[in-house]
Amino acid sequence: MQKNLKLILGLSLPIVFFVCWISALEYRINHAEEITIRAEGYDPRSLISGHYMRLRLNWQETDCRQFNDNLCHPNRFESIYKYYIPEEYAQTLDKLVSKKHVKVDLIFAYPKDKNPYLKRMNLNGQYWLDWLKAQNK
After folding, report:
1. What whole-number distance in Å separates Cα of residue 70 and Cα of residue 80?
2. Do both 114 and 64 map to the same domain?
3. What is the separation of C-alpha 82 from the centre of its chain, rounded to a whole number of angstroms?
4. Is residue 83 located within the same domain as residue 126?
5. Which helix or strand (DSSP H or E) is residue 132 part of?
6. Amino acid 36: pLDDT
7. 45 with 1, same domain?
8. What is the Cα–Cα distance from 8 to 18, expressed in whole angstroms?
9. What string of pLDDT tens digits covers the 137 residues of the chain?
């Protein structure tokens, strides 16, 4: 009986550890300050490669006043990001974005002591899926 208890504890301890760790990371991301950075297509011939939008951060069109010290910090960010688009929307979104003048904004969680985390993408101020559905009406 005691062997079974040790086995159960031994197997459940790593699972509990990882659940706590992931929960702490999620909490940190969800409660971090959000920063919006303007982005542009990295490859204008094919903005969507596979099912990812390849985007380059555009610091010239980003409002740096949203940072605590009113200065942009491009060194804390990567220069190019990939944003996953589900297969069912990729082709339609690629056509609409290439035809229309669309402002692309990437919203990041911006914790003070960690790297920024890409949370979502907005097109013309709306969540990309809401924008796409409005265009298809």
Report:
1. 23
2. yes
3. 9
4. yes
5. helix 128-135
6. 92
7. no
8. 16
9. 677 888 888 888 889 899 999 888 888 878 888 899 998 876 555 555 667 888 899 999 999 999 988 999 999 999 889 888 888 888 888 777 777 788 999 999 998 878 899 999 999 999 999 998 888 77
Nearest residue to 62 via CA among 38, 39, 43, 91: 38
Phi-psi region of 124 (alpha: psi -120 to 50; beta: other; left: phi over 0): left
- Residue 74's nearest CA partner among 57, 51, 94, 93 is 57
Q: Are residues 25 and 49 in the same domain?
A: no
Residue type, 53: M
Closest CA to 39 of 134, 100, 130, 124: 124
Amino acid at 43: D
Q: For the chain, what is the domain count?
A: 2
Taking the C-alpha atoms of residue 103 and residue 100, their distance in angstroms, rounded to an integer, is 9
Contact 116, 34 (CB under 8 A): no
Q: Is the pTM of this model over 0.70?
A: yes
The token duo for 95 is 């056509």
**Is the Cβ–Cβ distance between 59 and 108 less than 8 Å?**
no
Domain that holds residue 24: 1-31
pLDDT of residue 1: 67
